[in-house]
């Protein structure tokens, strides 16, 4: 029995090491080649499960959505944050959830219906070509999404376009994500796109950076 437990522990440890190290290297290589891709729908449970919801519940406090705001959630996945974001925006506000995968948006819409919310819009679109007018949102947030976009510079330019002057862009990343970028990398990319760092939360393991559109 002890031997079986040690074998199981070794296998688990090996998988964790593969997830945290070699897989990250492969993800960075894919990004350099412009081959980044979103989390597949079949793996949606990795980003939306009871443990992660508890672990990540403070994220929207950092995003700091105000009642009445028009908020873009780019890459909502199965909608782990959408319902709470919509409640924070309130009946006078609006959350626009945009994802490139139709299956993810279908799940978002189901959760919104079950919650009885009417202030959520959804759309299937690329981050490179957002279906929004210039300066039409007050705040945009991405949770472990930016590194999955093949052309991050183009996506950031689109986010800057749809945000009103002085609008807030909130980017959250966590180390357990294979595509994880260090805070300095995210800051450099955002500043190059015309954003100014306004707030910083967390540490290298899990961080949120809030930028202002200059």
Q: What features would you describe in this structure?
A:
By secondary structure, this protein is an alpha/beta fold. The protein has two domains: 1-35; 38-213, Rossmann fold (3-Layer(aba) Sandwich). The chain is 39% helix and 24% strand. It has helices at residues 2-20, 22-32, 50-55, 59-63, 82-89, 102-115, 152-162, 183-192; strands spanning 70-74, 94-99, 120-124, 137-143, 163-174, 195-202, 206-213. It has a seven-stranded mixed β-sheet with strand order 3-2-1-4-5-7-6, sandwiched between helices. The longest helix is centred in the first third of the chain and has 19 residues, at 2-20. The N and C termini lie far apart (62 Å). The model is unreliable at 12-18 (pLDDT under 50).
Put the structure in a nutshell.
This protein starts with a helix and ends with a strand. It has helices spanning 2-20, 22-32, 50-55, 59-63, 82-89, 102-115, 152-162, 183-192, and strands at residues 70-74, 94-99, 120-124, 137-143, 163-174, 195-202, 206-213.
SSE layout:
Elements: H1 2-20, H2 22-32, H3 50-55, H4 59-63, E1 70-74, H5 82-89, E2 94-99, H6 102-115, E3 120-124, E4 137-143, H7 152-162, E5 163-174, H8 183-192, E6 195-202, E7 206-213
Parallel strand pairs: 1-2, 1-4, 2-3, 4-5
Antiparallel strand pairs: 5-7, 6-7
Keywords:
single chain; alpha/beta; 7-stranded mixed β-sheet; 214 residues; 8 helices
CATH topology of the largest domain: Rossmann fold
For the biggest β-sheet, the strand order reads: 3-2-1-4-5-7-6
> Which percent bin holds the helix content?
25-40%
State the CATH class of the largest domain.
Alpha Beta
How much of the sequence is in beta strands? 15-25%
CATH homologous superfamily label of the largest domain = Vaccinia Virus protein VP39
Residue ranges: pLDDT <50 for 5 or more in a row?
A: 12-18
CATH architecture of the largest domain: 3-Layer(aba) Sandwich
Provide the succession of SSEs: HHHHEHEHEEHEHEE
The separation of the N and C termini measures 62 Å
Largest sheet: 7 strands, mixed
* Number of extended strands: 7
In total, how many domains does the architecture comprise? Answer: 2
